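Hi there. Long-time user, first ticket. I'm pasting a complex I've been working with (about 1168 residues overall). I'd like to know whether the download I got is complete or cut off, because the file seemed smaller than I expected. Thanks.
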Amino acid sequence: MTQQISPMPERKLTRDEVIALKNKRTLVTVFQISWIMVFVCLAVVAIQIRGTSGPLPALNAIQVIVPLGATLALLGSVWTAWQSLKAIQADQRARFFVFWRYTLVLGGAFILVMLAVMAFNPYGDLLQYSQIFRVMVVYHALHALVIGAWMVQVYRNAAQGAYGSSDAWGVEAGAKLWYFVVIAWVLFYAVLYVF
Amino acid sequence: MNLPKLGNTQKQGGGGFPVVWIVIGGLIVIVGGYLISLVTPSILPRAGSAQAVLIDDLFRFMLFIGGGVFVLVEGLLLVSVIRFRHRKGDRADGPPIQGNTTLEFVWTVIPAIVVTVIAIYAFVVWQQIETVPPNSQQVGALGQRYAWSFSYEANSETLPPDVNMDAVPEDVVTRISSEEGLTFTSPQLHTWVNQPVNVSMETDDVNHAFWIPGMRIKQDLLAGRVTSIAFTPIEAGVYRIVCAELCGGGHGNMAGIVTPSGELSGAWLIVHPDEETYLREFYYPELEKILYPPTDPALLGRQVIQNYPCSGCHILDDLGWVGVTGPTLNGIASRSARLTASGYSDMADYLHASIRNPGEYLVPGYNNLMIQFNADPAQPNYMSDADLDAIVAYLLTQTQ
Amino acid sequence: MATISAPLPGIQVSEEGKLRIGDYLKWSVDHKIIGVQYAVTALFFFIIGGALAMAIRWELLTPALDVAADGTAYNQFFTMHGTVMIFLWIIPMMAGFGNYLVPLMLGAKDMAFPWLNAFAFWLIPPAGVLMILGYFAGQAQAGWTAYPPLSTMFSDGDGQTMWAIAIHLLGASSILGALNFIVTIRNMRPEGMGYFQMPLFVWAMLATSIIIVMATPFLAGGLTLLILDRVAGTAFFNPAQGGDVLLWQNVFWFYSHPAVYIMVLPGFGMLSEVLSVHARKNVFGYRAIALSSMAIALVGFTVWAHHMFTSLTPSLRIPFMVTSMIIAVPTGIKIFSWIGTIWGGKIRFNSAMLFGLGFLSMFVIGGISGVMLAAVPFDLHVHDTYFVVSHFHFVLYGGSVLAIYAGIYHWWPKVTGTLLNESMGKWHFWLTYVSFFFTFFPMHLLGMLGMPRRVAVYAPEFQTLNSIVSFASFVLGISTFILLYNMVYSLIKRKQAGPNPWRALTLEWATSSPPPAHNFHGDPVPYKNPYGYGTEAAYRYLEAQEAELGKSWPNLEEEPARALKPSSSPAGD
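Hi, the file is complete. Here it is re-exported in full:
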C-alpha cells in the first residue's frame, strides 16, 4: 500500500489501557470457548442422526475434492491472517494489506464454495441428515459472513490509516475471530467428511 | 469504644467435642432416621408387585439415611441457633476459626461412602427389576390422546373350551386360524397373580408415560419407538394406570377413573387371583365378543367404541366416560341443532362426518383436537367402515 | 470521574446529585444501575409467575377442571409459570445481584465491559414481552421442557415459536452477562486479592458463569433445531418422518440440568456471605466451599440424563445414577461447612440471617430427595410426579428464592442507603417459611401416592392434601407482598443505614451507601481475609473504615447513641 500516513505515535499504554486490552483478549478467548459449544452441539446432533439414518451415500470425486479444497483454502487463510497480524504489530503496513487481502479472498472463496456444495446437497435421500448438513453449513456460513464483514471493515479502517503496533486490537480481534471460524469448520468438516 | 474481648477461650468447632456427645448425637441421628423410615408403608400405595417390594425396601433404606441426615442437619442448626444466639450486650465476634481439616475430611468421606452404598444397593435392585422373566405374558399398550388401550393375542390354541365354531363369522375364523392369530383390545390391562407381564408400548401421537403407582413401574412411550417394561403382580386387586408424561390438555384424564356409580372406567390394571379366573372373567368373555358378534349394530357399536381412545376426551354416562376436552356425547342423537349448524340433514351422516373428518364442523367452544379416524388401513388411526357404522348406530341410541 | 474505558456519547451516568427513578428506566452502563434494573425486572416477572402459580393452585383445589377454561389453558398456566420463574425471575435476579456486587466486592469501578453489560440486560425486557405476548397467538402449552412432538406437531399456536425465540434471547443475554463476569473476575481483582481471597459470592458467580458459557450454547443449538422444525418444515424431532424425540431431551437437559446450578450456585454464594457476617464468624472451610462450587459445576455436566430415567435406554441409566449421586458430596461439604460457620458464632436473628438459616434448613430436604430421585429404581415410581415438583421447589424456592430474600435484606442498605423494617421482615420470614413448608412438603406424599405432575384433574382421594397445599400456597403468595410493601415503606421512610451497617469485611461495604458512580473514594484496600471476624486486625480495619466513611446504623439495638445518625456521605454523591 502507498499509505504513508504515520500511524499513532509510539507511546506507552496507560494502566487502564493495559487492563482494557487484557480484558478484551480474555473476552475473545472465553467467547470462543463458549460459542464453539453450539458447533459441538450441532456436530453431536449430526453424529447422532447419522447413527440412526443408515449408511451415507458414497461421495464422488467432485463431492470430495471441492469441500476439501475449500477447507484447505480456509486453513491457508489462518496463516495469512496470522502474517498480517504480525505485520501490523511490527508496523509493516504494506505487508499487512497484502496478507489481509489474501485472507479475505480465501475466506470469501470458502464461503461461496461451501454454500454451493450445500445447494447441491449430496445427502438428498436422507431426510434428517441432509437437513442437519444444510443447517450446519448455513450456520457456519452466517458466522463466517458476520466475522468476514468485520474483517472487511478492518481493511477499510486500515486504508484510512487506522491501526499500528500500539493499536492493533481491531486487527487482532478480526484475526482471532477468524481463527474461531476456522476451528468451528474443522470440527464440522471432521464430522461431515472424515469420520 | 471498648475493644471487644478477643481470643475466645470457649472450645468450639468439632475438634474439641467430647466423645460422649458424638456418641449421643450419633444415636439420636440413627434412632431418628429409623423412626422416620417407619412411615414408609403409609406414604406409598399398597405394594402390588414383586418389583414394588424391592423398590419400597430401597426407599425405606434411603428414608432411613435421609431421615438421619435430616435429623443431623436440622439438629445441629437448632443447637447452633439456641446455643450460639447473640446475647444482649455481647459485642464480641465469634472465634477466628478458619476450618478444621480433619472435620472437613470426615464430612467429605462419610457422605461419599453413604452415597456409594445407596448407589450399590440401587444398582442391585435395578438389576433385579430390569430382568424380564421368560414366561411373561405379552401385552401391547397403545397410548393415544387421551386414552390407553391394551391388546391381547388369540389363536386357535387359546379359544374357550366350549367354543361353537359354527356361530363364528367366517372372517374371524380365518384370522384366528392364521399364523399370527387375531388381536383384540381392551381399555384395561388384565393379568393374574404371580404372572410376569411384559408390556410393549407404542404411541400414535405424542409421548406418554405408562405408570402403575401400585406396581411402582413407569416407562415413557416415545413417538417413533417401541419401549417396554415388565412387572410381576403379587396381589389380586385393581390398580390405577396413569399417564405421567405431559401429552396435552386432557393429560389428567388419561388415567383410571371411578365413576360416580362406583364403576371402574378408563385405564386400570386388574389382577385376577389366578389364571383360571383371568380366563373365565376376562379373556374368554372378551374373545367371545369377537367370536359371536352381537347382531344388533347398536350393541356391537357399544363394544367397538371402547376399542378407540374416545373416553379420554368425551363424557358418556352410559360407559362412565368423564373426559372434558371434547363435547359431551350424552344425548348426542337428540342434538338436532348441530344439524342446522353443520349443514347435514341426517344425524347419522353428521356423526359419520364428525369421526372421519372432525375438523369439518366444530362444536362452538371446542378446538380442533380430535383424532381423524381414517378409512384406509395404511394410514394411522384406522377405523374400518364396519366399526364406524356400528359406532354410529350405538351413538344414535344416545338420546336425552 | 466515572471513566469507563471508551465511553460512548450519551451513555454517561449522571454523576451529580442523587439518582432518580428515571435513571433506572434509561440505558445506563453503570453496573449498579444495571444490577437494580435486573432485579426490578425480575421482581416484576416474579409477580407474574406467582400469579400463575396461584391460578394453578386454585384449579387444583378440586379434583375436577373448574377454573381453567380447558385442559390446554391449564397447561399454558404451568408452562408459563415454569418458564417465567426460571428464565425471567431467578436467573436475571441472580445476574442482578452479580452485577451489583461483583465489581464492588472486587474494588473495581465497573464491570470489564459496561456497554456489553447494559446490552445483556436490555435483551431481557423484549424477550419477556415476546414470551407474554404469546398469549395472543396461542400460548406455549408443552411445559417448560417443551418435549417434541407435543411442542412441534401438536402445538398449533405461534406462542410456542415465540416462546422458543424468547428463550433464545434470554440465553444470549445470559451468555453475554457470564462472559463479562468471567473477564471481570479474572482481570479486575485489586492488588492483594488472589482467587482465594475473593469473597465466596464472587467464587459462586465465577462457577455459575463458567456453567453458563459452556452449557447455554447447547440450548441455543437445540432451540435452533426446534424452531426450524416448527417454522421451516425440517424433521429433526418429527418421528413420522424418521426424526428422534430423544434427541431433544438429551440436548435440552444437557443445558437444563446445569441450569439448576446456574440458579442455585449464586444463592450458595450469598448464603456464605450472609451466614458469616450475621454470625460474626469466619467462614468454616473457605477453600472447600469455593472449590465445591467448581466441583458442582464440573460434575453437573455429566448428570443430565437423570431427567430421562423413564425414557433413556435402560442400560445407560446406571452411569447417570452414579454421577448424580456423586454431586451430593460437594453439596454436603457446603451444608456442613455452613453449619461449621454458624457453630460457635454470635448469631444475630435479623431478617437476612433468618432467611439464610431458612435456606439451610429447607435446602437440605431438597438435597435428600435429590439423592432419592437419583436412585433409578425409586425414580421409576416417582418420576414425573408431584414428588419431583416438591423436590425442585425445595431446591429452587427453599434454595434460590430464600437466598434471594436473604440477599435482599442483606444488601438493601447498600443499594438504597436505607434499612428495611425489621419487624415486617420477620413477619415476612415466618409467614414465608411456614407456608413454604406446607405448600411443598405434602407434594412429596402426593407424588408417592400416585399423583402425576402437570394434571388439571386428579383422583378424588388426593383432594385433602391438595387443599392443604393450595391454601398454604395462597399464604405464601400473600407473604411476598410484605416484602414489596417493606421496600416501598423503607424508601419513603428513609431510615439511614450508613456505609456498613453489618460491620462486614467485604469490599462492597467499604464505600458509602449507595456507592458513588465510581464506586469508591480512592482505591479501596481489601482486608486480607474477607471473613476474618474475631481478630484484632479485622476490628482495627473496621474502625479505620468507620473513621474514614462515617458511622453506620449499628446492628446492636441496645446502642441508641449510634442509631439513626445520618451517614456522613449523602446518598449517591
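A couple of notes from our side: Chain B touches chain C through 97 residues (CB under 8 Å). Residues 50-83 of chain B form the longest helix (34 residues).
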